[in-house]
Amino acid sequence: MNKNIITFKNVHELVTLIKRILTKLKDNPTFVNPPAALSELEKMLPELEVALVNAKSRDKEWVAIKNNKKAIALALLEELAAFVIGIAKDDRALILNSGFDVTDEQSGNEDPSIEILEVEVRAPGEATVRGKNKTGAVAYVFQYAIESPGANTMWHGEGSSTCNYTFTGLTSDKRYWFRVMAIGRKGQKAYSPIVSRAIQ
Question: Where are the domains of the chain?
Fold first, then answer.
């Protein structure tokens, strides 16, 4: 039976989950040689907590920083979850021993998805990206590339808790490729279709 082991209802529960995982997974004899994501998560946790406190003022810059840190944390947790499941398999006790939670996987409609991606180019050097028909997502990473996407394409990304984002400082008269990675409540991720636009 498949399990979901990244569960939280809000960013405060996410911080609690990260702290529990850091405590239980570090130096755990069952989970030796964890990936670098564990130390990266430990390093960025204080940054996430600072951003969370400062974002309470609803300052747009700090809200954006908080969203970006949250998206990064989810990506790191996903890597750690894959490591834990690879060792623990379906052993509920072992999974709990790692600090993760265990929830039976729900139906497929829990998976995050964005069926339609819209990109508006109105001002010079800017592009506003919006996801449509989205389901099951709690965070988003908006990405762009400066070359036609392929296996080795470098994507530049910004995190957000809402499904729209405006990139600024883009090069005028140049073509960009855009996509959004949607992240589900339990760490699932899915990519939107890719849309290409020439920047004004």
Answer: 3-104, 109-198
From first CA to last CA, the distance across the chain in angstroms is: 51
Q: Does domain 109-198 have CATH number 3.90.1200.10?
A: no
Output the furthest CA–CA distance in the chain (Å, rounded): 56
Residue environment code for 10-23, b if the CB has 16+ CB neighbours within 10 A, otherwise e: ebeebbebbeebbe
Residue found under tokens 């623990």: 88
Residue numbers of the chain with a pLDDT score lower than 70: 1-4, 103-111, 133, 186-187
What's the pLDDT score for residue 79? 86
pTM: 0.53
Q: Which two tokens stand for residue 101?
A: 């939670």
Beta strands in the chain (DSSP E): 3-4, 103-104, 113-120, 127-135, 137-145, 156-160, 164-167, 175-184, 189-191, 195-198
